[in-house]
Fold this protein.
Amino acid sequence: MQTIKIKDDFIKLGQAMKLANLVSDGVEAKFVIQDGLVTVNGEVDTRRGKKLVPGDVFAYQGQEVKVE
């Protein structure tokens, strides 16, 4: 499982996907999230602005990423 470290209290899902190199840009992140292809803590979430905090895990195309 990949991990990304954040400096603030939270990171938005779209930004986290870019940071983890799962998508190339915000537009791609927007579409894959809206299409229901991303899970947060095991559940589909269609909000690009979903706030992730340390301990959250998101997944796309079989790749899991933990926020630290």
The first strand starts at residue 2 and ends at 4.
